[in-house]
């Protein structure tokens, strides 16, 4: 058996009210059934067990038999639940069946286009799907898989699209460019898969998806995977599917069962950095992903950790694609122990040896917390997710706990205990209400404020103000930094005023011993992943909007080819 993956694009993998069918899926297949019982061929079962998997997850056990029956599917499942395999396995089974059908024989040297088309929102997720195909399709003779994404030279992708192609994984923007140039042939697609459909709509790809679907054969199978099918995602599903069967996997228990969650309160940004350094000395840690709220924070934290001896690298959407690929390869090959990443850059990372996730900066949406911690506890392993939070983060912590329906256990590091009294997340107000630290202010919001450090907020000395200003070390010369003079660098996504700081971007004046920046704006700022300069049209969507030239986006610079009217604008105006 040979596996013929397009060499230029080859990668490796370590182990609402919706008019859909009311048919239940509870009895399709019992969770925990053997892979062979799902109807998978011997070739696939061998490849799956060789990869180290012993039993299908809930979403796999329920979705795979339904998909192999030819039904359109709408699957609600969170990251880390095994959803990628839930559509890759049926896709490979379709290709295997075509190998046995003389009427579907394909001659070498002719361009047919793919039998299976998978659309994914980001390059990293597309690459993850491609790697999964290489693992599970190891026993499929002559399998040809390609992925086309932004940041990769056109010539390599044009070559990948020639000849008998079985499976194509693409980001919508780059695929549209290839379609407009006549390089992508989609007339023979038998199966369309939309992975993380909700995220693609958040990123403004809805018009691209509709145009791509219109170019496909009407007689095809369509599978959509999304965290939710409310609102616009549900409307799109109604347009693209017919009598779709709905499968919903519990978004909380399925994702968190093998992940222990801990919460460490920090008095200040200095305290948070000290906690991070101490936590990274855990001898039980295999590999770790540290999440930051901005690209710039990712660079700074990675730089400082490198200076104190850690094998670490940053990963974010502002990096060139080639560099991002090298970082991911170093992570998989275990040359890196720590990856410091933003939300979007880390989506699609499937490395079973990631034992820890640390939230150095909190996400802007509770569901993004689920995606973050889903980087650990994969492939049947256990994992540890640690969140570092300050006083201003209480509201987000409560939203996360309500979303997951699980309180996060508070923990402390000996010698680094927080000075303030942390709020009780399990007592009154867990399901709603306003947070309070220690004793509530008399009379609630209308009562007198406790005496603090003066200024706007008073309160806890050394903590951040609720609006993002600090109570300690107010700058004497104006500005918002805590070193006595403005440094000229607001967080990415905000306003900028000067060159990057020296010594790798860390603040010198008044900085803690660890060298981390003092007095930065609140993490998350005005955006979640802080794109470079250009404002995003989706607010706090948590995803890197497909950017144009130079920012690792999904398409080259320039307008679309002439003569290709698209009606309404493809993306929300900047």
TrEMBL record:
- The chain positions of domain Helicase ATP-binding read 64-247
> Would the keyword Transferase be found if you checked this record's keyword annotation?
no
Gene Ontology cellular-component annotations: cytosol
InterPro entries per the UniProt record, alphabetical: DEAD/DEAH_box_helicase_dom, DEAD/DEAH_RhlB, DEAD_box_RNA_helicase, Helicase_ATP-bd, Helicase_C-like, P-loop_NTPase, RNA-helicase_DEAD-box_CS, RNA_helicase_DEAD_Q_motif
Pinpoint motif Q motif by residue range. 33-61
Q: Which family does it belong to?
A: Belongs to the DEAD box helicase family.
**What is the name listed in the Swiss-Prot or TrEMBL entry for this protein?**
ATP-dependent RNA helicase RhlE
């Amino acid at each position: 058996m040979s596996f013929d993956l397009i060499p230029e694009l080859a990668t490796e993998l370590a182990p609402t009210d919706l008019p859909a069918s009311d048919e239940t899926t509870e009895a399709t297949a019992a969770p925990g059934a053997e892979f062979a019982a799902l109807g998978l061929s011997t070739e696939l079962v061998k490849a799956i067990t060789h990869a180290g998997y012993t039993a299908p997850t809930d979403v796999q056990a329920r979705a795979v038999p339904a998909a192999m029956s030819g039904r359109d599917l709408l699957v609600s499942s969170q990251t880390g639940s095994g959803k990628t395999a839930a559509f890759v396995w049926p896709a490979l089974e379709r290709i295997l069946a075509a190998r046995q059908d003389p009427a579907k024989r394909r001659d070498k040297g002719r361009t047919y286009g793919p039998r299976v088309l998978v659309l994914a929102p980001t390059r990293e997720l597309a690459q993850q799907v491609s790697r999964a195909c290489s693992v599970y399709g190891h026993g499929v003779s002559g399998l040809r898989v390609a992925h086309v994404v932004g940041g990769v030279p056109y010539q390599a992708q044009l070559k990948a699209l020639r000849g008998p192609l079985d499976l194509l994984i693409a980001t919508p923007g780059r695929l549209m460019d290839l379609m407009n140039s006549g390089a992508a042939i989609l007339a023979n697609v038998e199966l369309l898969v939309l992975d993380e459909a909700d995220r693609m709509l958040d990123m403004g790809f809805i018009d691209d998806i509709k145009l791509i679907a219109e170019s496909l054969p009407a007689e095809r199978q369509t599978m959509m995977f999304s965290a939710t099918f409310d609102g616009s995602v549900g409307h799109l599903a109604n347009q693209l599917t017919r009598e779709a069967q709905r499968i919903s996997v519990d978004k909380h228990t399925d994702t968190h069962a093998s992940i222990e969650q801990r919460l460490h309160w920090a008095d200040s940004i200095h305290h948070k950095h000290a906690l991070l350094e101490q936590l990274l000395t855990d001898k039980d840690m295999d590999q770790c992903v540290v999440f930051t709220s901005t690209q710039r924070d990712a660079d700074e934290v990675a730089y400082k950790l490198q200076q104190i001896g850690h094998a670490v690298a940053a990963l974010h959407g502002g990096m060139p694609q080639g560099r991002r690929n090298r970082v991911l390869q170093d992570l998989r090959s275990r040359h890196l122990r720590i990856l410091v990443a933003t939300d979007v850059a880390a989506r699609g990372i499937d490395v079973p040896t990631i034992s820890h996730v640390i939230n150095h900066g909190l996400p802007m949406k509770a569901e993004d917390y689920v995606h973050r911690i889903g980087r650990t506890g994969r492939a049947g392993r256990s994992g540890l997710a640690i969140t570092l939070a300050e006083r201003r983060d209480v509201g987000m912590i409560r939203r996360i706990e309500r979303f997951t329906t699980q309180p996060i256990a508070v923990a402390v590091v000996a010698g680094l205990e927080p000075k303030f009294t942390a709020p009780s997340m399990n007592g009154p107000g867990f399901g709603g209400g306003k947070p309070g630290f220690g004793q509530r202010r008399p009379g609630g919001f209308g009562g007198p404020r406790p005496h603090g450090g003066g200024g706007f907020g008073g309160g806890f000395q050394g903590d951040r103000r609720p609006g993002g200003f600090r109570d300690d070390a107010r700058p004497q010369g104006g500005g918002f930094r805590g070193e006595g003079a403005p440094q000229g660098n607001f967080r990415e996504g905000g306003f900028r005023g000067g060159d990057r700081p020296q010594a790798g971007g860390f603040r010198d004046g008044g900085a803690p011993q660890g060298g981390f920046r003092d007095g930065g704006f609140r993490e998350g700022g005005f955006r979640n992943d802080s794109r470079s300069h250009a404002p995003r049209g989706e607010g706090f969507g948590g995803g890197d909007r497909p950017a144009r030239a130079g920012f690792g986006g999904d398409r080259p610079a320039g307008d679309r080819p002439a003569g290709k009217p698209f009606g309404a604008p493809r993306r929300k105006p900047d």
